TrEMBL record:
One of its GO terms (biological process) is positive regulation of DNA-templated transcription. Keywords: DNA-binding, Transcription, Transcription regulation. Signal peptide: none annotated. Residues 34-94 form the HTH iclR-type domain. This is Helix-turn-helix domain-containing protein. InterPro entries: GAF-like_dom_sf, HTH_MetabolicPath_Reg, PcaR_PcaU, Tscrpt_reg_IclR_C, Tscrpt_reg_IclR_N, WH-like_DNA-bd_sf, WH_DNA-bd_sf. It comes from Pseudomonas reactans. Residues 95-280 form the IclR-ED domain. The keyword DNA-binding applies.
Length: 280
């Protein structure tokens, strides 16, 4: 693998930042930096899987961008066909997928992983995915689902989920150094999704300490009742974590013990094979 390809893949896991507005402010004084464009992109990123309809006030709170600027961004997105409104709340339209889907599905990481995910899904009859860390969320870059194994969370390439309560997110957070993890826990919205959700910095730190020892994690219905998942890291030749691989199952169908005995070995083997294919 060339240095250029390795750099491209490593860049898919950027450093944790405080907020979109603060990141934009850091470029104040750069005559070539377009603040309006940066704000528009931040507004697009404010929408999440479970927050598809947002008001101007909610977007302003999420991004720390003034409401007047948020309103102008939304007006522009609507005019260009990327968003719509019912008069009060706003939502994105399918056209926004054109901004990132082609890139995500054609990166070396995704292209190399897809056949492996497809093989795992065919062999074990469950949904397998790969994601990287993007700010406070995991970004799905490859996925192989089975149509007869449906869960209510609708996921595809380009989907985002919170990092703190998902298996791939917990794996990727465990790969951060202590300073970056402290920064994440200081500003991330640790919401209670279910009665099982770990939502305090102390509880998440304890889970991460265990992950760093085991090298894998099972998240048991923390994001959604009935959703149980297992994740492992994907590392480069230097041992740095580039992405995470996972399998998502229904808790009523697959036990924690079965995840460890039946699904963990092939997932770890797939991670090792992918790493060797990419870097050796």
């Amino acid at each position: 693998m060339t240095d250029e390809t390795r750099i491209r893949m490593q860049s898919m896991a950027p450093a944790i930042i405080a907020s979109p507005a603060k990141r934009i402010e850091a470029f104040t004084g750069d005559p070539n930096f377009m603040t309006s464009l940066a704000r528009g992109l931040a507004v697009v990123h404010a929408f999440q899987e479970r927050k598809r309809h947002l008001t101007i006030a909610q977007i302003s709170h999420r991004t720390e961008i003034p409401r007047a600027a948020v309103r102008r961004c939304l007006h522009t997105l609507i005019k260009l066909g990327y968003a719509t409104t019912d008069g009060r709340s706003y939502s994105l339209l399918p056209k926004v997928l054109t901004l990132g889907h082609a890139y995500l599905s054609s990166t070396p990481l995704a292209v190399t992983a897809q056949p492996t995910l497809d093989q795992l899904s065919e062999q074990l009859h469950e949904a397998f995915s790969m994601a990287t860390l993007e700010g406070d969320e995991v970004l799905y870059v490859a996925r192989s689902a089975t149509p007869h194994r449906l869960i209510s969370v609708d996921l595809s390439v380009g989907s985002r989920l919170p990092a703190y309560c998902t298996s791939m997110g917990r794996i990727l957070l465990a790969a951060l150094d202590d300073a970056a993890l402290d920064d994440y826990l200081a500003h991330a919205e640790l919401q209670i999704k279910t009665s099982r959700t770990l939502h305090t910095p102390e509880a998440i730190r304890a889970s991460i300490a265990e992950i760093r020892q085991l090298g894998w994690v099972i998240i048991d219905q923390e994001l959604e009742v009935g959703l149980r998942s297992l994740a492992v890291p994907l590392k480069d030749s230097a041992g740095q974590v580039l992405a995470a691989l996972n399998v998502g199952t229904h808790a009523g169908r697959v036990t924690r013990k079965e995840l460890e005995t039946r699904f963990l070995p092939p997932l770890l083997e797939a991670s090792t094979e992918l790493s060797q294919r990419l870097f050796h």
